[in-house]
Amino acid sequence: MPQTTASRIIRALIPSAMLRFNQFDHKFFGISDSEVEQMDPQQKQLLQCVYRALENAGIPMEKASGTRTGVFVGIMNRDYETNAAHVHPTVINHWTGTGLAMSIGANRVSYIFNFTGPSLSIDCACSSSLVALHLACQSIKQGECEMAVCGGVNCIIEPRVFVALSKAKMISPEGTSKPFSSRADGYGRGEGCGVVLLKPLRK
């Protein structure tokens, strides 16, 4: 099937909200046209934010390449995977598995940036990013990596999750999260990506 036809099928079957996440310069990261069409937007946001974190730290990609840098990512949302499961079989190709799997979120960062430290995608619901931070610090402390990229990402594409959470009374009436507070009354869902670069204080 011609690539343009496959693109039309994807756009027809996946909600238009997903398309706004796809403004991504894939060629900058050495990703082909056919591969990027199968990528979860969360993977794309991670790559962009990791680049920005390195840039803000004054570390060029070339200098970071080959270093013992760990990647620890909190990622739990499967909206893209859920929607993509319904695409026409002719759209599925050899990139589909890596594009949809949440486990690949951290691994793709390690691969693209040529990091050689531990690479973990962590799903423990609302605490995913916090646990990722804990594991990153432990990894540095134990000498498994010399620095670590740590963060979290969430893209909301599928509205049905809100229905389930609302019926379970897990959504805060105020729409805000109040972690570790006696005023906590559920959580407020948000989307975006945040990444920090961690190093031991002596470095």
TrEMBL record:
Gene3D superfamilies: 3.40.47.10. It comes from Characodon lateralis. CDD domains: PKS. Residues 1-203 form the Ketosynthase family 3 (KS3) domain. This is Ketosynthase family 3 (KS3) domain-containing protein. The lineage of its organism: Eukaryota, Metazoa, Chordata, Craniata, Vertebrata. Keywords: Phosphopantetheine, Phosphoprotein, Transferase. The keyword Transferase applies. It comes from the Eukaryota. PANTHER family: FATTY ACID SYNTHASE (PTHR43775), SI:DKEY-61P9.11 (PTHR43775:SF37).
